[in-house]
């Protein structure tokens, strides 16, 4: 301890002898701390966000492993056959949901809004229930709304609802043109509903057909889905 005090006194004497060096060192240290604090705040705010909804600590995103992938080999997406098999054999989690979050759609002109290309996500009907995230207005998907003929319903993101539809409180039940087809708005998610990565501006049902479930689709990148699981309350 005495040696440490001697070193500190020596360092202080040297700093007093060189005020210019002391000022530069202090300024450099202050800038370094400020930059690190700023970067940590950005990372914490954008990359370390908890999932939206209730009980976010009970939510996990499951990915597969691709041994042929050099970058992030353990964060590969999951094929439809694997997802269906995991969900059928699931005994650990309360529920499982799927999401294809890398889609784009064309929104036709609606009133004063101009046509535009939007980032969207196709999700299983239970997606919002798994996340325990209720809509701000309207409802989320019914269980059978992933079936052909009943799948032309959508949920708007809060920003798109504000920007394109002027926060219309009567938007639920309105028909809009999406990819040159009529779709019915059934709900709007709150502004707080934000996922990591690209934020979808709207959500549509994920329709899984026979081709998606075939054995040949197990390794196909065309059938990629992301999996969200919610743990059972009594899981170990």
Account of the protein in words:
- The chain has 236 residues and is an alpha+beta fold.
- It folds into 2 domains: 2-46; 56-231, no CATH class.
- The protein is built from 6 helices and 10 strands; from the N terminus they run ααββαββαββαβββαβ.
- It has helices spanning 2-17, 19-46, 80-89, 127-130, 158-165, 210-213; strands at residues 59-62, 78-79, 93-107, 116-123, 137-138, 153-156, 175-178, 181-188, 202-205, 224-231.
- Strands 1, 2, 3, 4, 5, 6, 7, 8, 9 and 10 form a 10-stranded mixed β-sheet that branches.
- The longest helix is centred in the first third of the chain and has 28 residues, at 19-46.
- The two termini are 47 Å apart.
- Mean pLDDT is 77; it is low at 221-225 and 232-236.
Characteristics:
disordered C terminus, 2 domains, 30% helix, alpha+beta, 10 strands, 10-stranded mixed β-sheet, single chain, 236 residues
Question: What is the topology?
Answer:
Blueprint: H1 2-17, H2 19-46, E1 59-62, E2 78-79, H3 80-89, E3 93-107, E4 116-123, H4 127-130, E5 137-138, E6 153-156, H5 158-165, E7 175-178, E8 181-188, E9 202-205, H6 210-213, E10 224-231
Parallel strand pairs: 4-9, 6-8
Antiparallel strand pairs: 1-10, 2-10, 3-4, 3-10, 5-8, 6-9, 7-8
Number of domains: 2
Coarse structural class: alpha+beta
Quantity of strands, as a count:
10
How many whole angstroms does the radius of gyration measure? 25 Å
Query: What is the N-to-C succession of helices and strands?
Result: HHEEHEEHEEHEEEHE
How much of the residues is beta strand, in percent?
25-35%
């Amino acid at each position: 301890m005495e040696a440490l005090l001697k070193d500190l006194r020596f360092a202080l004497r040297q700093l007093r002898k060189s005020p210019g060096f002391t000022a530069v060192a202090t300024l450099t240290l202050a800038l370094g701390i400020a930059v690190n604090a700023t970067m940590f705040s950005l990372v914490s705010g954008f990359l370390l966000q908890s999932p939206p909804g209730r009980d976010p600590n009970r939510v996990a995103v499951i990915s597969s492993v691709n041994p042929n992938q050099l970058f992030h080999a353990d964060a590969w997406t999951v094929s439809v056959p694997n997802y269906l098999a995991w969900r059928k054999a699931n005994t650990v989690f309360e529920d499982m949901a799927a999401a294809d979050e890398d889609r784009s759609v064309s929104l036709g002109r609606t009133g004063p809004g101009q046509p535009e290309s939007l980032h969207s996500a196709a999700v299983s009907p239970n997606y919002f229930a798994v996340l325990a995230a209720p809509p701000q207005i309207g409802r989320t998907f019914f269980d059978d709304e992933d079936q052909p003929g009943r799948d032309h319903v959508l949920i708007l993101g809060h920003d798109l609802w504000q920007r394109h539809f002027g926060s219309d409180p009567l938007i639920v039940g309105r028909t809009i043109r999406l990819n040159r087809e009529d779709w019915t708005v059934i709900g709007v998610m709150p502004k707080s509903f934000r996922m990591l990565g690209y934020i979808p501006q709207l959500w549509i049902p994920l329709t899984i057909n026979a081709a998606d479930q075939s054995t040949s689709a197990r390794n196909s990148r065309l059938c990629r889905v992301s999996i969200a699981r919610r743990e059972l309350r009594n899981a170990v």
